[in-house]
Amino acid sequence: MLIMSKNLLPFLVILAFSSCKSKAHQQYSGNSVMNCSESDETGPSPAFLYSCNDERPTCKALLMFRTQPPYDSVSSIANLTSSDPQELARLNNVTSSEVLPPDSAVFVPATCSCLGKYYQANASYVYESSDDTYLTIANQTYQGLTSCNALKRENPYGEFELLPSMNLRVPLRCACPSEEQISSGTEFLLTFLITWHDSVASISEKLNVSAKSVAAANGFAVEDPDIYPFTTILIPLKAEPEASKLRGSFSTSFQYEAVPHTKSFRWLSEGVGAGAALAVFCFLALLGFLHFRKVSAAGVSSREMKDRLPEHFLDKVVGIGGSLKIYKYDELDAATDSFSLQRRLSESIYRGILHGKRVAVKKTSTDVSKEMKILGNLNHFNLINLYGVCEHHEVFYLVYEYMEEGSLKNWLCGETSSFAHSWHHRFLIALDVANGLDYLHNFTSPAYVHKDINSYNILLNHQLRAKITNFSLARENGKSHSWSAFGEKGYMAPEYAKAGEVSPKIDVYAFGVVLLELITGREAVLVQDGEEALLSQVVISVVDGTDTTADVNDLVDPRLQVKHPLGFAIDQSELALRLLKLSVACLAPQPTRRLSMDEVVKALIKIQPDIYNPQSFSIE
Questions:
Q1: How far apart are CA 578 and CA 600, in angstroms?
Q2: Could you give the CA distance from residue 391 to residue 171 in angstroms, rounded to a whole number?
Q3: How far apart are CA 366 and CA 516, in angstroms?
Q4: Options 452, 547, 551, 557, the catalytic residue
Q5: Is 504 helix (H, G, I), strand (E, B) or coil?
Q6: Among 270, 360, 397, 447, which one is least packed by beta carbons within 10 Å?
């Protein structure tokens, strides 16, 4: 039970209590999330996120959010959490334009995936206030749906390097049910936000779940444990919650109530007046110090930008200056061993170590202001992260996050472990690319068309999660014509290749080709009988029955073949056919007949459960 006293409000936020532990699916964090210097070197820590349970690598999850201006509408909450606004509106039985009353409980749909040690749903946030820190972003903006430790790990900026307009990656707290929970009927795990005066008993009653199942899901030894504000607990749900009935049930307003003597913490209330006053004073002093450091950093950054970049270049990138770091050439020279051949990844890209973080440095003499403007103002987990820029002797250097596995093209063609080539990984790569394009087309203002989607411009990190890169050809949607088409052969939509017509549908077409590469393991342009053939045309002829000499199983990459423990191959033709038909729907010759990226994402999510069906993937 959450116990509060008016005298303890300044105090309990910073007190650390250790939570009771038992054999359970996850462990409750307690107030360890308030310590932004936690370590997980010896193993996963609940002070970061929820641990992967090694049973389900991805799943649908639900997150709870309480409305607060400016996050009090479907669009604003969906933008903050990088969730699907249409699904969010449906789940909460509200319209897309409806503004909800303050403190309303909103349930947010999320795709929860295992990334390294932890589960997370990926969101993005544009840093706005110079007074915010990782702690306030985690606990105030996101209300505890992330942690300062997780934010520090996901982003390259230090606590005193945050400046307005910076793009931050935000890993949200979520988890997938274990096999034991699934067998007992659990469909979703809801990440529930704890606030003043909450208790496991009251939460369980309102959500119509047993306190015993909640205790087991969070590692509590008892059904009525101590829980604290700005933390989360997991609620096992057998069905979607009825949001309209629960919306007013979880108000954050504090009302003092008498509590039994055995739980009153009366011993804490004596003699805390002086301590509380001292705590408040120290807290205010700390805020003042942080504000001073940030204002100073902002001033230095502004001066450094003017000193390091030519004036004509600054005019082109006005409006994004604070979002990117301006590096000195000496920093990049040292990071890449003077751009040595040993650090060279491609003709113009080098890997390096910059301030202890691995980066990729792109060297170019062409105008990079367009790409800087796009990536400086956009932020999504599935778009490559641009850290900063440098100009030296009229040569520009763009500093990106480092993607360990390189391009999707090289990964598909290279020799990697058989485990890496699984339906699970191939499917997640497709979903990542689709989510990135859906964000570009439908969730940015202005909306963008990438124009050059291909497996070279999709990069993979060490966890085989995909990010779209190379925005040099991207343009705002609505500028619908290009005098000449530029792009990789095999990926260009007919209307773009022939007439230079540009719309989001040319990205959809290119995605269809990438999806075919993921399914077949073949390149977009094939050589058959000494002549070139497009992969898309080869596949379409098989799927529509024109080519009767081959079937669906002949198209699937042999590395994806799944064998039963008894030795025979499991038939995957049904799953493969569903994905191939989705590809073909993206490849319609007429743009109006192609799916939108929003429809592609929804179709993939419907297919996703079959990826984890024991009959659809190998038991490795």
A1: 12
A2: 32
A3: 33
A4: 452
A5: helix
A6: 270
Nearest to 375 by CA among 293, 441, 262, 472: 472
What is the spatial distance between Cα 4 and Cα 531, in angstroms, rounded to a whole number? 76
- Per residue in 395-420, pLDDT tens? 999 999 999 999 999 999 876 554 56
The residue whose two tokens read 């009653």 is: 205
Enter the tokens of residue 337: 């061993």
What's the CA gap between 3 and 268, in Å, rounded?
A: 11
Q: Pairing state of beta strands 232-237 and 188-193?
A: antiparallel
Nearest CA to 104 out of 288, 250, 213 is that of: 250
Q: Cα–chain-centroid distance for residue 601?
A: 15
Share above pLDDT 90 across residues of the chain, in percent, rounded to a whole number: 35
Task: Write out the two tokens for 27.
Answer: 């462990």
CA–CA gap between residue 179 and residue 505 (Å, rounded): 40
pLDDT of residue 265 exceeding 60, the answer is no
State the DSSP H helix or E strand holding residue 193, giving kind and residue range, or none if neither: strand 188-193
**CA terminus-to-terminus distance, the chain:** 42
How many CA atoms lie less than 13 Å away from 263 in the CB half-sphere? 14
What sign has the CA pseudo-torsion 280, 286, 289, 291? negative
CATH of region 406-611: 1.10.510.10
Q: pLDDT for 165-220, tens place per residue?
A: 777 889 999 999 988 888 889 998 999 998 877 889 889 988 899 999 999 999 88
Report how far residue 605's alpha carbon sits from residue 430's, in angstroms, rounded to the nearest whole number: 11
Cis peptide before 109, with omega less than 30 degrees from 0? no
What would be the CATH architecture of the domain defined by 309-401? 2-Layer Sandwich (3.30)
Which residue did the predictor score with more confidence, 364 or 280? 364
pLDDT 10s digits, 298-339:
444 444 444 455 555 555 554 554 457 889 999 999 999 999
Q: Burial level of 318, CB count in 10 A (0-12/13-18/19+)?
A: exposed
Which residues touch 230 (CB under 8 Å, ≥6 apart)? 13, 33, 34, 139, 143, 144, 194
Could you tell me if 438 and 445 are in contact, meaning their C-beta atoms sit under 8 angstroms apart?
no
Closest CA to 58 of 614, 436, 608, 619: 608
**How many residues comprise the chain?**
620
391 burial (CB, 10 Å; 0-12 / 13-18 / 19+) is middle
For 22, 44, 434, the CA distances from 53, given in Å and listed in that order, are 15, 11, 26
* Owner of token pair 């544009």: 126
* Furthest CA-CA distance within the chain: 89
Q: Tell me, yes or no, if 598 is annotated catalytic.
A: no
**CA within 13 Å, CB half, 256:** 8
> 3-class DSSP state for residue 460?
strand
Tell me, yes or no, if the two domains 309-401 and 406-611 fold the same way. no
Host H or E run for residue 377: helix 369-377
Joined together, the tokens standing for residue 494 give 């007919």
Domain spans of the chain, in order of start: 17-241, 309-401, 406-611
**Encoding tokens for residue 57?**
């690598």
> In angstroms, rounded to a whole number, what is the distance separating the alpha carbons of residues 589 and 254?
60
Phi-psi sector, 13: left (phi>0), alpha (psi -120 to 50), beta = alpha
**What gap in Å lies between CA 368 and CA 389, rounded to an integer?**
9
Instruction: Give the C-alpha separation, 514 to 434, whole Å.
Output: 10
Residue among 100, 97, 123 at smallest CA distance from 110 = 123
